[in-house]
Amino acid sequence: MTHSDVQPEPDPRRWKALIFICLAQLMVVLDGTVVNIALPHAQADLGFSDANRQWVITAYALGFGGLLLLGGRISDMWGRRRAFMVGLVGFAAASALGGAAVSTEMLIGARALQGVFAALLAPAALSLLTVTFSEAKERAKAFGIYGAISGGGAAIGLILGGILTEYLNWRWTLYINVVFAAIALAGAVWEIREPAGARHRGRLDIPGVLLASSGLAAVVYGFSRASTDGWSDSVTIAVLVAAVVLLAAFAVVQARVREPLLPLRVVANRNRGGAYLSLGLAVIGMFGMFLFLTFYLQVVLGYSPVVAGVAFLPMVVGMMIGSTQIGARLAVRIPPRLLMAPGLLVGACGLAILAQMKVDSPYAAVVLPGLFLIGLGLGTTFMPAMSVATHGVQPRDAGVASAMVNTSQQIGGAIGTALLNTIATSATAAYVTSHSSLVTSPAAGQALKMEAMVHGFSVGIWWAVAALVLSAVVAFTLITTGRLSATERPDEDEETVPAIHGL
């Protein structure tokens, strides 16, 4: 594919298109958390076991995380607009099926189907953004808005889930997607256009599809199982070993086939590789924090689902400010790493404030400032990170590069939830053991139980701080590109060798 120096005229409908692309992305991201708060109500209604409760969450993550690379490549080959529209229709249908579920199996199946269509929809949305906005300032602004939605979507999901569950019914946490999808689909029909000549003309790498999908699904399942059954569980160990073997085989296959599912030029580039790794580490910290704080607000502070959801608002506000006012404005003036590394350290400071939580900590003194700083820092980070992660790719690789952004976040979320949950649980058990001699009455026993739980959360959050600091180091060390200019030259195949040496 030849690359012309003549820049095509920008699509006059691009800003309207951005609204619908962001709406679709919001739907995909918030579905990772919107059902969480509704789970106890769904469990009471359908009568499923505690073991199956985890599967309502895991089924979505498995379908989504396992098929992202395939979804990204299909959007490259099939056309991003078409993939986007099919993804919307499928996601809406799966959501309606889940909302109407009359059994546990029907709900879990619908959640898995949601994940499958999300794996097509999410890369299509980000790659549409990548090929639609080519001018530097506009691209920064568009990615700023998209980054705020992607980062804040999980918190918005908790807020929306609480409101829908408390005032309507748990089923509306799924039905609401039909409304979102219908609006986004109408926008796709009328406003979204894909630039000509941006498709990947070739065959699908079937061995790569099988290895990547099974390997990524095994990673997600292995870490999800570890969070409930422990790291010493034989099935957990077997699944994680299988994941390593499958992904290693995938890397070997990708280096040898003529038309790989994931061209190594996409990830071997120093800057993009650094962005994927940095995003994954940041999400480890963020998802661990969501897990602990949701329990802290409802179990320890006694908040209702709605109030617990609304308590996350400072993070959403911080995310919007960081993405649109700091990240988008400075991205065209300073190198990405000078935004990402400080942003991640600000987020780490927010987590460090949350780690001071006690059983009787006032919300305004600990949770509010901590959440705001996390949102501000990660909002500032996500915008340049997503832009770097898709910067300079050949148009025919935009979908699979976008899929790698979502893959790093999904894997980071699965690892963060499992790893930090295990650390927190161990810390809680150790605290109870070391303080059990102080229990002299049932009331003292209950107080110790709460103190131990909060101690465990605090220890887990300190590990999340470490994940964000490590992410900042990765971003500052690996991402060496200058300002993200309008005249980016897409990678050529022969350029990948110097890129690998750069690593």
UniProtKB/TrEMBL annotation:
InterPro entries in alphabetical order: EmrB-like, MFS, MFS_dom, MFS_trans_sf, Sugar_transporter_CS
Subcellular location: Cell membrane
Major site of localization recorded for this protein: membrane
Keyword Transmembrane helix: yes
Spans through the membrane: 17-39, 54-71, 83-102, 108-131, 143-164, 170-192, 204-223, 235-253, 274-297, 303-326, 338-357, 363-390, 411-432, 452-479
GO molecular function, one term: transmembrane transporter activity
One GO location term (cellular component): plasma membrane
UniProt membrane topology term: Multi-pass membrane protein
Keyword terms, alphabetized: Cell membrane, Membrane, Transmembrane, Transmembrane helix, Transport
Pfam families: MFS_1
Domain Major facilitator superfamily (MFS) profile, residue spans: 17-483
NCBIfam families: efflux_EmrB
Record-given protein name: MFS transporter
